[in-house]
Amino acid sequence: ISCKRISSSSSSSDTTSSKIASIQNKATSVDENLINEMNSYWMGTINIGTPPQSFNIDFDTGSSDLWIPSIRCLSSCGNHSRYNANKSSTYPANGASFSISYGDGSFVKGYLDSDTVTVDGLSVVNQVFAEALNMSGFNDVSD
């Protein structure tokens, strides 16, 4: 939080302090139980949509992208759980294309969506994520 000192009466200073305290009180943290998979990656559970659809994901610190296999993904998504936008009352269609390639040669292609994403009880409304239609290199990741 960036603050500017306001030099005026004490009531303005009190108001500024009160606003800062209010912002600090709104900060939230959650403890997500992650599972160490083969000393290679950390898996945890998130929920997407209303009602929630549950997914085990890799909490990858090397990528800022959240992607989930789509119900419309056929053979390339293997046995992974799939997101079904038609089952969510909080899903607004987006449809912009999405593609990412990783250093190990794995890749994901699909399109962007948004919906309510929940991690250990903390929900973000209209969180953008990718719905994967085609993916390669993720068959060893449990889910």
From TrEMBL:
It comes from Adineta steineri. The lineage of its organism: Eukaryota, Metazoa, Spiralia, Gnathifera, Rotifera. Belongs to the peptidase A1 family. The keyword Disulfide bond applies. This is Peptidase A1 domain-containing protein. One of its GO terms (biological process) is proteolysis. Keywords: Disulfide bond. Disulfide bonds join 73-77. GO terms for molecular function: aspartic-type endopeptidase activity.
